[in-house]
Structure formats: structure tokens, C-alpha cells
Write a structure and sequence with these properties.
It is globular, with a radius of gyration of 16 Å. Helix 3 packs parallel to helix 5. The longest helix is centred in the middle third of the chain and has 22 residues. The chain starts with 10 loop residues before the first helix and ends in a 9-residue tail after the last helix. Helix content is about 60%, strand content about 0%. The protein has about 180 residues and is mainly alpha-helical. It has six helices and two strands. It has a two-stranded antiparallel ribbon. A hairpin with a 2-residue loop joins strand 1 and strand 2. It has one domain.
Length: about 180
């Protein structure tokens, strides 16, 4: 049986993973709002592509295909800080207009928009948990979470922090079967 293990085996593997984690954390915090810089005819703010689980799912698939430590680390960092960002987006001033999730120019109803973001937060935390293998992964992820909450704290901290914690609890309720052997 061929062993499929993404655990870093050398110091270089850990270094590559941490570099990926840092870059992933920075991009994960900012990617969701990149649609604000793109014309509405191309991508609305809070597009389903940038505010959800599609990009994290593609990253997770990429990790399994490439089996590279930098991509694994990037995915962990991206998912954790993206979950932080989405935790803040779960509580807009009102659920209308640009606060809704958009599929091209069509917007989801408020309850469905809220549900999409909530499920995406849980998925991001679960995916990050799935790929965490070392103490350094945990340490850098935790640092990314703190930085993410610190950067967005001006928007109000209590509800997003509560949402993130609930998502974390839910993500840890799902079984973790990594399929280490093939």
C-alpha cells in the first residue's frame, strides 16, 4: 500500500508549510473583498465565488493533487483567516443589497445568504483542521486568527467571535478521517 501522508517530514517541509501558512493567511483575509475592486458587471460584492466555500474546496482538492507542503500550509492559513473574514460578514448592518450573496447579478434571499456564509465558515475551519499536522501549523494558524480578528475588530468583535467559536465547535464535531493509506 502506498502511503499518502501530508505530514511534514523534514525541517524544510516545516519551513515551506509555515511560508505557505503566512501567505495563505494574508490572502485569506483579503480575498473575499477583492470583488469590491472588480466592476459589478463582472463580479458583484459578496459574490458566491469569493464569499463561500468554493475557493477553499478547490484549494483542498489542490493539496491532495499536488501533495506539496507550501500548498498545504497556504490552504490552512487561507481557510482560517477566510473563516475569520466570513465571521464578520455574517453580521452586516442589514441583509439587503450588497450584504446578500450574489450569483452574477442575482442575489440570494437574506436567510439563504446567511446560511451560505455560516456553512462556509464551518467548512473553512474543518478543512484547516483536516490539513493541520504539526504544532507549527497550529501556532501560525492561531496567530493568523488573532491578526484577522485584530484587523477587523473595528467592526465589532463579540458576534463574529461567537460565530467563529461556534463554527469551530461544529467543525470539530465532524469526524476526521484522512485516509492516510491508499
Amino acid at each position: 500500500m502506498q502511503r499518502i501522508d501530508l505530514t511534514p517530514q523534514t525541517g524544510t517541509d516545516i519551513y515551506l508549510s509555515c511560508i505557505g501558512l503566512l501567505f495563505g493567511a494574508v490572502i485569506g483575509m483579503k480575498l473575499a473583498d477583492i470583488d469590491q475592486r472588480i466592476p459589478d458587471w463582472l463580479l458583484y460584492h459578496r459574490a458566491i465565488l469569493t464569499h463561500g466555500l468554493i475557493v477553499p474546496a478547490l484549494l483542498g482538492w489542490g493539496v491532495w493533487r499536488a501533495k506539496h507542503q507550501t500548498i498545504r500550509g497556504f490552504t490552512i492559513g487561507f481557510c482560517m483567516t477566510n473563516a475569520v473574514h466570513l465571521s464578520f460578514d455574517l453580521f452586516p448592518r442589514a441583509w439587503w443589497g450588497y450584504a446578500l450573496i450574489h450569483i452574477f447579478s442575482w442575489s440570494l434571499p437574506p436567510l439563504l445568504s446567511w446560511f451560505w456564509i455560516a456553512i462556509s465558515i464551518v467548512f473553512c475551519v474543518y478543512l484547516a483542521r483536516f490539513f493541520v499536522r504539526t504544532f507549527w501549523d497550529l501556532l501560525v494558524s492561531g496567530f493568523g486568527i488573532l491578526i484577522g480578528f485584530g484587523m477587523s475588530a473595528h467592526e465589532g468583535l463579540l458576534l463574529p467571535l461567537l460565530a467563529f467559536m461556534i463554527a469551530g465547535i461544529l467543525a470539530f464535531l465532524f469526524p476526521l478521517k484522512r485516509g492516510e493509506e491508499k
